[in-house]
Amino acid sequence: MTGIVIVGGGFAGLSAAAVAKDEIRAAGADIPVTLVSKDEYIVIRPRLYERDPETLRAPLPPVLGPIGVDFVVKPATAIDTAAKTVSLADGSALSYDRLVLATGSEMPPLPVKGAAEHAFDIDSYDGAVKLDRHLASLAKSGKPESDTVVIIGGGMTGIELAAEMRPRLAVHFGEAAAERARVVLIERADVIGPEFGENPRPIIEQALAKTRVEVRLGTKVAEIAPGGVKLEDGTPIDAATTVVTVGLRANALTACIPGERDAAGRLVVDENQRVRGVEAVYATGDVAHAQADEGHAALMSCQHARTMGKYAGLNAAHDLLGLPFRPYRQADYTTCLDLGPFGALFTTGWDRQIKNASDEAKARKRAINTQWIYPPKGGAEEIFAGLRIDERGR
Predict the structure, then answer these.
(1) Cβ contact 305:326 at 8 Å
(2) What are the Cα distances from residue 11, in Å, to 57, 104, 176, 259?
(3) How does strand 57-59 pair with strand 41-43?
(4) How many Å apart are CA 215 and CA 219, to the nearest integer?
(5) What is the β-pairing status of strands 98-101 and 93-95?
(6) Residues 27-84: pLDDT tens digits?
(7) DSSP string, 2-45
(8) Which residues pair with 105 in a beta bridge?
(9) Considering the entire predicted model, what is its pTM?
(10) 192: three-class secondary structure by DSSP
(11) Distance from C-alpha of 79 to C-alpha of 282, rounded to nearest angstrom
(12) d(C-alpha 202, C-alpha 209), whole Å
């Protein structure tokens, strides 16, 4: 038996690998589980808006080794669902009995003139490090526009980056220069954080005002250049740094899988995370369009990916073991939005009812970012326990 191959070493892929191996072990079976990833690290992607991005990843071997998951550190380049193989960058291939695709999302260049050449992003580890090194290089430039940052996209990532930008600039520019800096947040919708709804908006607006972020709503960018941006109405904004935080799409490997897709390129899966109409293939995390509950599809988020991966791993293992499936459902939905020096905002439910917007929310966000989303440490039992589906179904 060639076993289960999981492609992608992010939150969903790691969860899938651990739970699949745990279920196989519990059944007393001997089915190999292999995780394929382009490098040896899991990127703590929800933290890439923070300073020091080079510290925001964790090694995978200390997690996979103790639980007996085989680890192949090579980029996957293609998938053949008829032959049941995964092609790797070195020309080799892996065969599978069940495949779990967990390669996450990516941010193609914004369809704006100059975006591919001149815009930065914090979507990936490499992108966040590139931005940080760029900021460091600007510290000594002395150019008039060097301390102006334009951020395109007023969703969660854009808001968190904008609120945290002065502390990030302070690392390279010093506190005084960071205080003088100009941070401009551009959102094409007529409201900030359109996906958040009305409940949290006043607090978000208050936080951005407190952190002195200039917010431009109902605004589109027509061109991005090394020295700034031009808005659709012709208004120029001089800036040495433009960061794009919008436009996520499912990873390009999804193109190898036949099946229905949503507007973001995510493969439509059934309640067990199986790609509809494709034999032996599961999709999970940001590459999957899955129902989190009866009325909502899962979001491209760490919160959903971690849980989705667990169900995909369990069901892929149960598929081979002849055991019952366990349908994926997200037991609850919460949001913890970092608002930089202002604090944080904690909400619950899809209508985002505000539960806390004080130091307690900031402490919760700090715990999420520095503890809860990191892979568990220890021996096999501790790692399995830390990645199992919990009593809430997460």
Answers:
(1) no
(2) 12, 9, 38, 24
(3) antiparallel
(4) 10
(5) unpaired
(6) 999 999 999 999 999 999 999 999 999 999 999 999 999 999 999 999 999 999 999 9
(7) --EEEE--SHHHHHHHHHHHHHHHHTT----EEEEESSSEEE-G
(8) 250
(9) 0.95
(10) coil
(11) 13
(12) 11
